[in-house]
Amino acid sequence: MALEYDVVILGGGTGGYVAAIRASQLGLKTAIVEKGKLGGTCLHKGCIPSKALLRSAEVLRLAKDEADSFGVSTGEVTLDFGKVQSRKESIVSGLHNGVRGLMKKGKIDVYEGMGRILGPSIFSPMPGTISVEYENGEENEMLIPNNVIIATGSRPRTLPGLDIDGTHVMTSDEALAMESLPASILIIGGGVIGIEWASMLNDFGVDTTVVEYADRILPTEDADISKEMEKLLKKRGVKIITSAKVLPDTLQKGEGSVSISAETGDGTETFSAEKVLVSVGRQANTEGIGLENTDIELDRGYIQVKKTYQTKESHIYAIGDVIGGLQLAHVASHEGIAAVEHIARKEPSHVDAELVPRCIYSSPEAAAVGLTEAEAKERGHEVKIGKFPFKAIGKALVHGESEGFVKIIADKETDDLLGVHMIGPHVTDMISEAGLAKVLDATPWEIASLVHPHPTLSEVMGEAALAVDGKAIHM
User: Fold this and answer.
1) Is the pTM of this model over 0.85?
2) What is the pLDDT of residues 338-380, one digit of tens each?
C-alpha cells in the first residue's frame, strides 16, 4: 500500500528533523526516512559526543594542572575513561529521546529504513516516489510525496592508502567509540575537527602530533587565529607539522604502532604513533539514494541546488552537508526551514554564509563570522582592524584564561563590519553578538556604543570595536 505525504525527508539528522518539525508546524503531512538513528551525525557521531569528551578533557586539565593556581588542592587526579564515555552516551541518549518525542509531538511519521528515490512509475509520472527498504527483510513500503527533501548528510573522507580499520587507523567516527586512550596519536589534518581532537587528546594525556597539508593549521580561518592557535597548542605540548604531504601507500602497521611518511620542508619524514586519526574533511552521502533515477546534478560529489534549495527536479529539494558549502549543523537546520517554507509558499530567507558563525571547540576556543582579513583585501576592501587581548579583561583573569584576543575587520571608507574573529575563553558563546551585528549591518562604532556589563568576557568585544578606530580604553 502506498502512503501519500506533502513532504518526505530523506535523513533524520539535524537538518532533516528540523525541516520535519517546521513542515508539521505549517500543517504539512510529513514523514522522515532514516536508516540509522534520529539526530544523525551531529547527535551521534559529531557535535554532541565530541563536545562531551572535550568538556571532560577540560575538567581533567583544570583539576590536574590548574586547580592549584585557584588555591584548590585536589590531591591525586585520575581519569576513568569508561565514565567519560558513559557520560557522553547518557547525554546523547537523552537528546535522542528528546528528538523522538518531538516527532511524536508533531505527528511526524518516522520510517526506520533506507530511502531510495524511484523514477517515474505506476505511483507517479514524476521521479520522487520513495521506496523504504528494510534490512530485516520486511517488504518495501512506498511513500508518494508531493515534495522530497534530501538531507542525507556526509561522512568522513579518507586518503589513498589510509584504509580505515578502526584499530590502527580511524576517523572521528571510530575515535568516538574508543574504549581506552592510546599512548600516542598521529592526526592527519589540521582543520577544525583535527584541532578539536588534538586539543582533547592532549588534555587526556595522549602524546599528540598533527600533520597538515597546508602551510598553517585552520587554513580556512583568519591567519592571526591560526597563528595563535598553533602557538598555544604547541605551548601545551602538541606537535604540529605543516606543509606536509602524506605519501600514499606508506602506511606501516606494527605491534601496537603505526607509521606513515610525508613530504615536508625537510624532505621525507616518517611519523609513528599507536594510532592514526584521519581528519581530512567530509564527503556527501549521495550513493544509493536513487539520484540516478532523476535529473539531479552533482558537482564534485555535492547535489546542486538553487537559492530555494530546489534541485533540477523542482519538487525535490536538498539541504545540509549533501549540498556542500558550510557543513555545519546550524546551517543545515536553517536550510531545512527555508526549504520547507518555500514548499509552503512562504517567503524564506536564504542562508548567507557570511552571516553564519563558525565555531571551534578546542582549548582555547575559536569562533568567527564574516570575512578573514585576506578575503576582505582580495575583494578590494581597504581595511581597518581593531584587536584587543583577553589579558586586559578582568573577567578573563578571574577565570584564569587570559590567552587570545578578538579581532574586528571593517571597511576603512564605509565603516561596514566585514568580519569578527575570536580566540580565547568561551568565544563560541560570544560570537553570536558579532553574528547579530553582521545581520543588522552594524558598524564597529555601534558595537562599541553598547554598554557591555563589567566584569564580563563580553567586554573584549566592545574594546575591540573601539580599537578599530584607535579608541580602546584599557590598552
Assistant:
1) yes
2) 999 999 999 888 889 999 999 999 999 999 999 999 999 999 9
Per-residue model confidence (pLDDT) at position 416: 96
- Whether the Cβ atoms of residue 24 and residue 46 lie closer than 8 Å to each other: no
| Cross-strand pairs, 316 | 148
Q: Which of 315, 334, 452, 454 is catalytic?
A: 454
Domains, the chain, with CATH or none? 2-47+84-155+283-353 (3.50.50.60), 169-280 (3.50.50.60), 364-467 (3.30.390.30)
pLDDT beyond 70 at 1: no
136 falls in which pLDDT band (50, 70, 90)?
confident
Instruction: Quick: pLDDT tens for 325-345.
Output: 999 999 999 999 999 999 999
Report how far residue 285's alpha carbon sits from residue 420's, in angstroms, rounded to the nearest whole number: 32
219 confidence band (pLDDT: 50, 70, 90): very high
Q: Is 342 a residue of the active site?
A: no
